[in-house]
Amino acid sequence: MEQYRLTALFFKANQGQPLQVLDKSILVSQYCPLDLSMENTELSTVAISDPDNCQNYIDTVLARNSAVVAYGGYLEKRRLYALSERFAEGGSRDIHLGLDFWCAAGTAVLCPLQGKVHSFANNADHGNYGPTIILEHQLGELQFYSLYGHLSLESLDHIYPGKVFDQGDVLATIGATAINVGYAPHLHFQLVLDLGSHSGDYPGVCAEKELEFYKNNCPNPYFLLKFP
Fold it and tell me: Which residues, listed in sequence order, are joined to residue 108 by a DSSP beta bridge?
């Protein structure tokens, strides 16, 4: 129910315009969908947990579609996390809770709608987000949060809790593999209704047994976007 409420409030406030989270010079026609799920048979011979192999596959998809950005991943069940012990804690966690945008390191990340910094951190252990920013937003009576993971270290410079970003402001840039602790360069973008006690971090992957809770607390960001 909150997802439908958030959708209605967003489009009312934004006059139906789609949310933008990456450099505005990248055209909508230069985005293409990417399937990293276990059901994708193309990945049966790809060691997708290795960032170089993952990048090679992404480059293949981008070239096939004459695209600059590959996106996807909400509630996608993936093998991507197989090499990281953090996703084996408490049972296998392999269902992705955000929307990923796979593109070049250094690509500008935009604030999709006005918000203020709730918290930030460099979650630097292998398989985590690396540099991360969480914004707090208010639409009508509804408060919610957006999380940006796998950023550059420079993205955390000159940032502080309470700092306000207007819609369209450059919030950050995408980090390289060495900084985002083990992934091909991309932005992890996630909506969260209730952060609980989390600060600078929030689960971006869950186990099957936790799916109902996280699906309700982390709405699909795609409904605010317009892509092919």
Answer: 173
**Which segments of 140-184 are extended strands (E)?**
142-149, 164-165, 170-173
β-strand pairing of 69-72 with 31-33: parallel
Query: Band of the pLDDT at 80, cuts 50, 70, 90?
Result: confident
Residues 6 or more apart in contact with residue 157 via CB below 8 angstroms: none
CB–CB of 36/80 below 8 Å? Answer: yes
Residue 3 confidence class, pLDDT cut points 50, 70, 90: low
pLDDT at 87 over 50: no
CB atoms within 10 A of CB 88: 13
How far apart (Å, rounded) are the C-alpha atoms in residues 41 and 22? 29
- Give the SS3 label for residue 78: strand
Check whether 91 has a pLDDT greater than 80.
no
